[in-house]
Amino acid sequence: MVLKKIRRRVERIITKPFKKPSRKPSIKPPSPCPSPPPEPPLPIMNRRPTHPFMFPESQSAVLPDPSPFFSPHLLSSPLPTNSFFQNFVLKNGDQPEYIHPYLIKSSPSWLSMSYPPLFSTAAFTYQIFNADLTISAVDNPDPNQTHVISSFNDLSVTLDIPNLRFYLVRGSPFVTCQVMQSVPLSISTIHAILDFTPNSSRTKYKFNLNNGQTWVLYSSSQIDLTYETSKITSLPFSGIIRIAILPNSDSKLEPVLDRFSSCYPVSGDAVFSAPFCVEYKWEKKGWGDLLMLANPLHLRLLDHNPSNKILDDFKYKSIDGDLVGVIGDSWVLKTDPVSVAWHSIKGVKEESYQEIINALVKDVDDLDSTSISTTSSYFYGKLVARAARLALIAEEVGHVDAMPKVQKYLKDTIEPWLDGTFDGNGFLHDKLWGGIITKQGCQDSSADFGFGIYNDHHYHIGYFLYAIAVLAKLDPVWGRRYRPQAYALMADIMTLGRGGNATYTRLRCFDLWKLHSWAGGLTEFADGRNQESTSEAVNAYYAAALLGLAYGDTHLVSTSSLLLAMEIHASRAWWHVKEDEGLYDQDFVNENRVVGVLWANKRDSGLWFAPADWKECRLGIQVLPLLPITEVLFSDVGFVRQLVKWALPALGREGVGEGWKGFVYALEGVYEKEVALEKIRKLSGFDDGNSSSNLLWWIYSRDEDDQGYEGGGRHCWFGHYCH
Fold first, then answer.
1. pLDDT above 80 for 40
2. What are the catalytic residues?
3. In the prediction, which pLDDT does 706 show?
4. Per residue in 627-664, pLDDT tens?
């Protein structure tokens, strides 16, 4: 699949003719537009069908069987396809997953945990799995039985192996294991045990390894342990054991572990408790206060209150930055509001309209639904979203003559996908995992970039949602007719519910602990989930919010806007590599301004479709599609200068695509408007999701007097983005 994906994208870069790009609109009131069809009465518009629309059911030939790894009671509900524990339910289930702060690897009869060292070069940075401790029950009666997921939530997964149940809760400094019946235990290590010290009640053991690590084991009642060079064994025991590494083997931090060893989380949920807020709530057992670890983005968004206390000196190392101790049974993460608008933030000056209109005339004239050759859900989605941009640009600059043709093109291209009449592909419903796949994808796992095995869902669907939202805005009667199909597509990535009453899994791509999306789908990867394009993820939630605006659905707008805000925060935190932030190793920082592919356990400078030195592609894949929301994603002008300075030299390489140049020039226009404008005027081609009109619109909606918001600036960059 990966090889086909690389080949298809490289072929597109090198051989696909780019269509002419379009420009960005203005917030100045446009000239009167033709009246749309009369809007249906609100009660009819908002009436929900008794049963949600579902695309035709599929019989996939490529999807894996989930039944070996999920408890039977979970199989009747939609299942996660991009979760933080996905490796545990694919193939043999034995690839590691990063359950912060430990890498966890499981087999049918044991679980290994690693506090991973970080290895970094100029090209990549990743964490190394070492089996620091491996826990099992002695004399497993069924060594061939697979481990089983008995429950899962936003922040946790419960994994069962014979006689042992592991509560794997993200951000817990302890790995907690419930020994279900009285059995002897084995704890082995690839290192040598240097010393082994119990407390007087034999409910705590501290041991040092020859790699410099110090571990502490706690038990709910007396446990009798003995050790050899690399192995610890117990007499029969039942109850709770908790194991944690002592950060930096610092004995001053041992009392912290002692204090919180008796209170353990068994699950964790993220609750949308208020607008632009996510509340973490953990179900706990034992007694005392709960200690969890926060990543740097959590700390930035944490709404401080007396029930939470941050332990600044209690830190674990992580590829995502230091994980810091926070006391409390629940946290509230709060982001500044990001409002969603159809048009540019600051508007386009009227004197700039004519050049944009001239580009629009040509771009709209070139629209021809009968000439589309692609049947790929990804590339087709880009084409319809590109046309939708032309409609909004025309609306913003008052070029009403363009609207009828764009609307006809959108109807001619979108309706066959929603009606199921598109020749060569289409959307289908998969009941096995619970989601939408494509006709091509249900027969070929590499078709549609793996959409049939749940890869890149938010990318493909985001483009379609954008186009549907725009058309529903322009033609409410059409919007009412196709609302069921539109909401089915939206629900594939935006469902909040769970359990047997849900049609789709909860927030298919969005990770409520990392606060960004994953794209990897049902493919086993040694480094866990991955995501390449943050801007296409941003587009997905932006498009869903626009869909909510088009249909007057305030709940959809609110939820989508929250996910949109979090995705932007995470993009800026982990994909945007700033010179002076110190999150990544200096060798990596010196050579990179954006991460190519971000994995749960790795940061890679290369892309799926291009090598690391194609810097224009690395920049462009974090920008496209160019939208009003792009201004928020790249509101830190200081970083934009760093990024463009880093990417510009790559444009001198032979064979650089004109489409990729357009995205570099677009960002250059954030701080050098006239310079970028001249470069854009000379482009001979454009990305298939971009246009001359869109690039001109973008440049002319830059405010020369506004130098942006560096590190928050004089205004909150979210708060500044308003209707």
1. no
2. 456, 532, 536
3. 57
4. 999 999 999 999 999 999 999 999 999 999 999 999 99
DSSP, residue by residue, 507-532: TSSEETTTTEE----S---TT--EES
- Looking at the DSSP assignment, which residues form a beta bridge with residue 430? 435
Farthest CA pair distance, the chain: 85
The H-or-E segment that residue 564 falls in is helix 554-570
Q: Could you tell me which of 472, 493, 484 has the C-alpha nearest to residue 418? A: 484
Q: Who's near 609: CB < 8 A, 6+ residues apart?
A: 5, 6, 8, 9, 10, 13, 617
Minimal CA–CA distance to 293: which of 174, 130, 125, 126?
A: 174
pTM of the model: 0.92
Which candidate, 276, 265, 252, 254, places its Cα nearest to that of 328?
Answer: 265
Angle at 173 between CA 168 and CA 174, to 5 degrees: 55
- What letter represents residue 274's amino acid? A
What are the backbone dihedrals phi and psi of residue 100, each rounded to the nearest 5 degrees, phi first?
-45, 130
Phi and psi at residue 411, in whole multiples of 5°? -65, -45
Check residue 103 and give left, alpha or beta (phi > 0: left; psi -120 to 50: alpha).
Answer: beta
Q: If you write DSSP's letter for every residue of 190-241 in order, what string do you get?
A: SS-EEEEEE-TTSSEEEEEETTS-EEEEEESS---EEE-SSEEEESSEEEEE
Long-range CB contacts (within 8 A, 24+) of 677-682: 680/21
Find all residues with CB under 8 Å of 681, minimum gap 6, and list them: none
Q: What is the CA radius of gyration of the chain?
A: 26
Residue 674, number of CB atoms within 10 A of its CB: 10
